[in-house]
Hints:
Blueprint: H1 2-27, H2 32-44, H3 51-57, H4 60-89, H5 94-117, H6 119-127, H7 129-136, E1 143-148, E2 153-159, H8 171-176, E3 180-187, E4 190-193, E5 206-212, H9 213-220
Antiparallel strand pairs: 1-2, 2-5, 3-4, 3-5
Helix pairs in contact: 1-2, 1-4, 1-5, 2-4, 5-6
Amino acid sequence: MAYVGILLIAILVSFIVVRIGGFALQLTGIEPDVARFQALSAFSGTGFTTREAERVVGNKTRRRIVTILIILGNAGMVTVIATLVASFTKVSGYTWFFIHLAIIIGGIFGLYQLIIRSNVGRRIPDWLQRPVMNRILRGAPAVEEIFRMEKDWGISLVTIKRGSKRVGQSVADITAERDLEILGIDRADTYLTRPDREEEIMVGDRLLVYANRKSVKQILD
């Protein structure tokens, strides 16, 4: 039974790592659903040739996060396989075999519900938000072009870093003297679509803006 406990601990740690990895990718400007999917893909060693994957490998900070997830994923997979095999090697009789199997399956399901689906799992990024933000936002791209159109106009994702003059300003303040429109604010696990003009900008916010390059640069001044 000791190996079963070690196995469940390894799976618990794996779920937590994927959760934190997805949050870290989200801080670099990737949408929450895409960030979680890419974190799981990297940790499990499953590769997908998609536009989202290209956004990951095209950025230094994201590559570093994915590299860590791949390394931890490989180590975790070895641990899980080794303990899984060991948990059944000394089982005598079919009764204990199915008891171990039921405990493992039930434990995995319970841990998945706890870390991925429940409020406890959603609070993990909140508990680690400050240290993760401090490390990730330093290397996050200040501006990421999402869609470029003619005459230097397009949709960009602008990251508000610590020390920015925009922290504490409202949406109205930022749009008042600039030829731009804020389409949304990506903030931790919350996304504000067409935010109120009175909404204040916070450190770590990612502003989805429709503007020309000059106006985008003015946000960073």
